[in-house]
Amino acid sequence: MNGHPGGEAHTRRMITLAALPNGASVLDMGAGSGEAVDLLCREGYNARGIDLAPRSGDMVAPGDFLHLPYADASFNAVLSQCAFFVSGDVPGALREAHRVLKPDGTLMLSDVFFEAPAPVVEAAGFELLHLKDMTDAWREYYLGALWRGEDHGCALPRGKCKYWLIIARKV
Ligand SMILES: C[S@@+](CC[C@H](N)C(=O)[O-])C[C@H]1O[C@@H](n2cnc3c(N)ncnc32)[C@H](O)[C@@H]1O
Q1: Which CATH superfamily is domain 7-170 in?
Q2: N or C: which end of the chain has fewer CB within 10 A?
């Protein structure tokens, strides 16, 4: 898995921290090639993804996560890795995640932030459960991608930014 820092181990870490109930329904916002969706399904969750440009068969639907085609309170959990920032509208993405989550639903987010992430996430109606600075892993991942000449669709942000792992609950 190469679409985000830390690969599959990082996704597994988020799932463990989130402590989701067996069979929980999970939406991956910006799922890309669907590797996290596949992992979630293998772990016994009812997962699906959405992406502007899906690179997977039937696990990731085409669509804009800033306008999700799902009813309010549809999912127990939302996962998103390296996608809210590149959408250009982090508050809008958080609003949609909040809308489609059931009450007490869980957000598993890892992404770049230029500002402190807690106020941004809390302003969208979430309570922070875990916040971990993964900037070192992000820097290593991004330099590796540049070295290999790969483009992961995530423009290198200029200036002071950090990469965070966030687990939060809808309140
Ligand atoms: C850096 S890739 C990460 C993919 C995947 N989450 C992973 O970790 O491998 C960012 C993804 O976000 C998707 N994306 C960006 N803005 C989006 C939007 N508004 N709606 C749906 N997908 C979006 C892109 O198409 C791309 O697949």
Answers
A1: Vaccinia Virus protein VP39 (3.40.50.150)
A2: C
